[in-house]
Amino acid sequence: MIVDLPPLREVIARYGLKAEKSLGQNFLLDGQLLDRIAAIPGDLRDKPVYEVGPGPGGLTRALLKAGALVTVVERDRRCIPALRELEAIFSGRLRIVEGDALAVPLADVLPEGGAIISNLPYNVGSALLVQWLTERNWPPRWSSLTLMFQREVADRIVAEAGTDAFGRLSVLAQWRCHARIALPVHRSAFTPPPKVMSAVVHVTPSNQPDGVDIKGLEAITAAAFGQRRKMLRQSLKPLPHALVALEATGIAPDRRPETLSIDEFIALARAYCCLTGSVTTGLG
After folding, report:
1. Which domains are seen in the chain, by residue range?
2. Which of 8, 14, 245, 277 could lock 272 by a disulfide, CB 3.0 to 4.6 Å apart?
């Protein structure tokens, strides 16, 4: 969709917008880079898209130009007038919701099969990701997640077992999803430049393993990585039934959690769910 839009810097100046550290804001103004991010999930023509924290609307522009039907949630009221400009230009294709994304039910802002695409505010990015990854019903209502994170967080999401970055977030992201780093982003691309590098992560859902409930997996990973430098026999001890589940899997109790593969965590969670009676199919 070809639309003549005023330069984003001009819009920011007109409304006196300034990225607020307290809100985890860093504005991304490079139009070509934003178009590349919008292209990662594939064809967006007439596809519902949910964006968190659009700020002055840089990524929102790219999504709308790609033909998406966009819903944004923005808690910073200073940015609403700039978004209203886009709402007027892209008539009927942009819906603006004022509020805190952590408190907005996903069903209220994203139809089944829609995509989530966001340059997430740094201070809520991980919490939102965990919300979306731990939906009980599976497959989830989202078809893919295309999300900007600090590079350190991105590396944790895609980390392989046995690496320093591998942890609870890695398991939650990979046990029933495919996750990859789609695009590294240099700190200089932002205004103001953050102190760290960033990366865009692309996540797509896959099949949920049989016999494993998300609550059971969360309990196992929280206990295991809550004391990640300890052996499993120590870190899992406070969680009832966890040591019995560990014995049932044949996983050596003197191993540390970061050495277990995703499949081993699935096996451990399956045994735990069987013992606690928390097994579900994961279907809607």
Report:
1. 8-205 (3.40.50.150), 214-276 (1.10.8.100)
2. 245
Q: Hey, what are 170's tokens?
A: 């890695």
Cα–Cα dist 75/2, whole Å: 29
pTM: 0.92
Q: Bridge-partner residues for 95, per DSSP?
A: 71
CA 231 to CA 228: how far, in whole Å? 8
pLDDT tens for 181-238 read 999 999 888 877 788 899 999 999 999 999 999 999 999 999 999 988 899 999 999 9
As beta bridge partners, residue 69 has 48
Instruction: Label the pairing between strands 48-52 and 69-74.
Output: parallel
185: three-class secondary structure by DSSP = strand
Q: Which two tokens stand for residue 98?
A: 């004022």
Higher local confidence (pLDDT), 19 or 107 = 107
The closest alpha carbon to 90, from 65, 117, 109, 122, belongs to 65
pLDDT tens for 239-262 read 999 999 999 999 999 999 999 999
- CA dist 195 and 197 (Å) reads 7
